[in-house]
Design brief:
It is a single chain. The protein has a single domain (4-92), classed as STAS domain (Transcription Regulator spoIIAA, 2-Layer Sandwich), CATH 3.30.750. Helices cover 47% and strands 15% of the residues. It has helices spanning 19-32, 47-63, 74-82, 86-89, and strands spanning 8-9, 13-14, 35-38, 44-45, 67-70. The protein has a three-stranded parallel sheet with strand order 1-3-5. The protein has a two-stranded parallel ribbon with strand order 2-4.
């Protein structure tokens, strides 16, 4: 079971320049097993970073690995709604 100590905290700014770094973190986490992402600090998020999170979540699902996004900030929730992806992420949000 994933504990809060295992959570990967997203930074406040997830712009396009952070997408590659985020991808690396997600791949590393997925290779270790269950993934818990703390999204409470996110103030700004770009579409490429949402794409990285979506790809990581889908990869985890395909591998039967738990993937959860906890404490999603209002900025993240608004970005998902703007892109029409809130339903897609619904199963991964806690």
């Amino acid at each position: 079971m994933v504990t809060s100590m295992d959570a990967f905290a997203l930074p406040a700014i997830l712009d396009i320049t952070r997408a590659k770094e985020l991808r690396g973190h997600m791949v590393e986490r997925l290779n270790c097993g269950a993934v818990l992402v703390d999204a409470s600090a996110v103030d700004r998020v770009s579409t490429p970073c949402i794409q990285v999170l979506l790809a990581a979540a889908r990869s985890a699902d395909g591998a039967g690995t738990p993937f959860r996004i906890a404490n999603a900030s209002e900025a993240l929730r608004a970005a998902l709604a703007d892109l029409g992806l809130q339903a897609e992420f619904e199963n991964w949000m806690v």
